[in-house]
Amino acid sequence: MSLLGIDVGTSGCKALVFSEEGQLLAAAYEEYDVQHPQPGWAELNTLEVWEKIQRTICKAAQGALHDPVKALCVSSLGESFVPVTANRQILGPSLLNFDGRGAEYLPELRACLSDEHLYRINGNPLGNHYALTKLLWLKQHQPELYQAADWLLHWSGFVSFMLGADPAIDYSLANRTLLFDLERRDWSDELLELAKVERDKLPPTLATGKVIGAVDRRLAQELGLPANIPIVSGAHDQCCNGVGCGVIEPGRAMYGMGTYICMMPVFDQRPVAAAMLAQGLNTEQHAVPGQYVSFIYNQGGVLVKWFRDTFAAAERKQFAETGADIYAALNSEMPAGVSRVIALPHFTVTGPPKFIDGSCGLIAGLHLETTRGEILKGLIEGTTFYLRECFEALPAGIAISDFRAAGGGSKSDAWLQICADILGRPFLRPRVIEAGALGAAIIAGTGGGIFPSIEAGVETMVKWEREFSPNPAMQQRYNERFEKYHRLWPLMQDYLRDLAA
């Protein structure tokens, strides 16, 4: 029997089927575009995405007919929610975390809720990239839709619900709303009252790895799945990534290389609030019981996709027709050594510690002979420098001895070596780089009774392909370039803000 891991991201969805030993049996992927109906808005067409999720499940199930699926689990993007009715009717789009709607509620929330108090309850600082402000926007600006919604479900719970499960949300995704009590592991009555959000709009909270229902018999037949297989509660995609690349204990960190570039360390004690807030860091319960994680991130994956679409539009169509990997071809154009191009990756809102908005990106060091490979390498170096600033300022109690890579970007040897050289830590690449789907499959196996624990599932299913060690000579050159990068924002911030205005 096999295990199905479904991974729903900002720009695409995957469905992968694994044997109980971790062998990949079948895979399917569909890409979709973020919708921008107005300037500053960013949302997913929920109906379109749900259709594509069903197609990926169907394709993956067909590829594993000889080894039928025994259980499934869904990994998903964090903050976005979907309004649905009790009879599984989709009511509207899903607002993404970088959608500007909701920012108008931050001053009022800050006036009655300090970051320190919120952090003590929820483990997060206040920000418009969490679900709460989007929920308040929906309630005020689309009250009919809000009232018609029986449930506001995050994507892991939404997909599970549409497949036949009960409404539910795991602790890690509940944490992304700003309404969850991290210690009590339930919705916070205080935060719900303060935000005037009705508890009955939100699904019950529970731990990752619990059976929350079974696949609907009719839908199972349409998708090519066995009837009544268990649906197991999933987790935030970054937490599933951590499970899928073996980042389940303190001292290790996942380095996700998808739409977001996300550094996720694991620790077993909540750090002091002041130290975390000073770096704009959160504390979230991991998919693994008893462990916490935090996120250092930027939209480096989106930046590389922008490079592809801008500098290789013609090749993109050609490669799509042949099925070849355009990213591998573009990566092969990157020169050896440090790029002569230096980039400030402020193409959209940045991540911790400052969450810089109202800026814009900068590419410096261009010459007539500059190649697109140099520009690509400069962009990758810039996103990694941004993360290094946060990495070097991690609070006491969070240590990283090595990184475990995950996501599509980790297919690139050159990119992983750049990361190892800039951050000065070894990078390990697993055999299965789609760690979110693998992590979801491991969790499905745990909830489905195949593994006694997530740790046992990781031991069985996660295998390693290669380690990338820092090159001392390149480390020195990158240290020198990092000092130049470090001066860019203070030097250029007024000009870049004027350009962005």
Q: Describe it for me?
A:
The protein is an alpha+beta fold and about 500 residues long. The chain folds into two domains: about 1-245 and about 430-465, ATPase, nucleotide binding domain (Nucleotidyltransferase, domain 5), CATH 3.30.420.40; about 295-395 and about 470-500, Methane Monooxygenase Hydroxylase, Chain G, domain 1. About 40% of the residues lie in helices and about 20% in strands. It is built from 19 helices and 24 strands. Strands 15, 16, 17, 18, 19, 22, 23 and 24 form an eight-stranded mixed sheet that branches. Strand 22, helix 16 and strand 23 form a beta-alpha-beta unit. Helix 12 (about 300-310) runs antiparallel to helix 15 (about 370-390). The termini are far apart. The model has no long low-confidence stretch (mean pLDDT about 95).
Summarize the structure.
The chain is α+β, with helices and mostly antiparallel strands. Helix 15 packs across helix 16 (413-423).
Principal-axes geometry comes out as globular
| Count of domains | 2
The quaternary structure here is single chain
CATH homologous superfamily classification of the largest domain: ATPase, nucleotide binding domain
For the record, give the distance between the C-alpha atoms at the N and C termini, rounded to a whole number. Answer: 56 Å
Mean pLDDT: 95
Separate helix tally: 19
Please outline the major beta sheet.
8 strands, mixed
Class by helix and strand content? Answer: alpha+beta
